[in-house]
Known about the structure:
Blueprint: H1 5-29, E1 33-37, H2 57-60, E2 72-75, E3 82-86, E4 108-112, E5 125-128, H3 133-139, E6 142-143, H4 146-155, H5 161-186, H6 191-202, E7 214-217, E8 239-248, E9 251-260, H7 266-284, H8 292-309, H9 317-322, H10 325-329, E10 376-379, E11 382-384, H11 387-394, H12 404-410, E12 415-417, E13 420-425, E14 428-431
Parallel strand pairs: 1-5, 3-4, 5-6
Antiparallel strand pairs: 1-2, 2-3, 7-8, 8-9, 10-13, 11-12, 13-14
Helix pairs in contact: 1-4, 1-5, 5-6, 7-8
Amino acid sequence: MTVSSSLATLHLQHLTSLEHAYQQALDAHGYTGVLLYSGHARVHFGDDQTASFSTYGHFLHWVPLPGSEHCWLLIRPGQRPLLRWYAPSDFWHLPPELPDEPWRDRFDIEPATETSPPQLPKGRFAVLGDVDGETAAKLGAELNPEALTVALDELRVRKTPYEVACLRKANARAFAGHLAAREAFDAGAAELDIQLAYLAASRQRESAVPYQNIIGVNRHAGVLHYQHYDLHPVQWHYSLLVDAGHRYRGYCADITRTWAGREASELFEQLIEGVTRLQRRLIDSLAPGHSYLALHERMHRELGELLAGHGIVRCSADAAVAQGITRAFCPHGLGHLLGLQVHDVAGRRLADGSSLPAPADHPALRLTRELEAGMVLTIEPGCYVIPMLLAPLRDAEAGRDIVWETVESLAPHGGIRIEDNVVITPDGHDNLTPKS
Length: 436
């Protein structure tokens, strides 16, 4: 895969900023250097097949080599990084090749046919990644020290222009898949065929997606992490929810769209419009210094207004929130940080390691920090009919404020989620997801 000269230049600038940031972090914690391990796939028990694999994020932060196994990257302040690149001679599998890109000139590259790490010089070193204690001991390195890991996690919270460019590209490719998925649904395709249409249009194989695509038709749209693909088309087309992404140079897009089917009720179509407008209002308010927790709470108040405005509840929006009704209709958080991981690091933690746990009323919230320029995050309000969450309210006091006949009419549609990926800028925000 070739990259544009502008992206290659941004990557070199990104490496320069990483070199400075790593020097400060290593000096602050008293380390001579750090050895980053890319990781490796694990073999299933009693089998010779491996599970799906994702390369370690801190390794990918330097080099755009997703899927790389058994590679090592040695970072020492004031010296060129050493990349020990595992490329064995093999006729069972195609050996990996390094891309011909300018970033290679910034590294000392050591090809290797063995999986062993490089020898470390004298000094105090840390080794980060999926490394066993015996290997770390042989290296004479500290294994995954918490303070240094927290500091390096913090470096990934605010994205460089290179990272934002990669995330924008991932969004564009993912969105092409979403449009193809909708076309397949409108043509009457089964969930599996919708998934295949998504993969074809987004130009990726299933093992390369950043997370398992959620392709939920009708009631399946109300299963938050629905994990199956029905093989046969449905008789009635009420709804389609697609939560699916793309990984570009290691960086992940995470987009969700919900569409009404030809048998959808008018109310469900109105709710899609309402959740979409709610999401747009939340995005419009994004700027540095805003509390993400406050935005999440605002989402619940506005969801209460949506439920009341469409006659799904009889009480006020504030009462719907106070009684836990809105949490039954939307049990997940408003969103999360996004980057080299779909749920990127440090969403509930500050640079000094202090914890920012989710509040008891919102345990699924993955981002509890104030917004800062450079953060990339998702905004994904939802509204679902989930029987196991609504059932306890039937006999509770709150149940008298729910119009159950209307809820039951919505149940075949499953639910709604609208999700975009947004970067916080110094004076506001920039939505990386193409407009639908």
